[in-house]
Amino acid sequence: MAAEPRFVPLTTWHPLEPEAMQLRGREFADELARRRTVRQFSDRPIPDGVLEDCLRAAATAPSGAHIQPWHFVVVRDPALKHRIREAAEREEREFYATAPAEWLEALAPLGTDEVKEYLDVAPALIAVFAERYGVRPDGSRLTHYYVQESVGIAMGMLIAALHHAGLVTLTHTPSPMGFLNELLERPAREKAMLLLVVGFPAADARVPDIVRKPLNEVVTWR
What we know:
This protein is an alpha+beta fold. 38% of the residues lie in helices and 16% in strands. The strands form two sheets. It has a four-stranded antiparallel sheet with strand order 1-2-6-5. A two-stranded antiparallel ribbon has the order 3-4. The protein starts with 17 loop residues before the first helix and ends with a helix.
């Protein structure tokens, strides 16, 4: 029998004046507009507690049936980071050797290649796993709902939180990513979704000269 729903008063929301709402919305949009993907990292360590707070923010993401089907693995050990780099570069060499010309052409303005030095240099890597299903105490399988959507929202919130905390990130998605399950000792029911490189930019960091689409190209008002 399904458990009876339990509700409590909403005490975490507080009304704002229209001017304050407009200001906060504008400031947040402006802050995120300054976010850039970085590929040249410093080895400067991240202050204690910063990653924990950013992960705590990501873990507040909404999820299907409140299953919270995500798991984050923070990697700071240099030897383990290097093993991840070696595995990722093997996959990347295969990708660049076999990828369709159209895909390589789309990547060309970003200046990417199979060399992933930042996986060694950056102080932290965060591997994000999606729990495709759960396991009940009796060992039976527990269905998870809207897994990719839920984990995708959490990943976006994590990137925003890290940027807000003064860090830079790189979303790295080598394909396939099964090696992360093996190296990070995660169960087969979890699927690696993203390897997030986190830290501070190198003093000489450069980013591609690109622009984002204007709002009128990505939003329709009805």
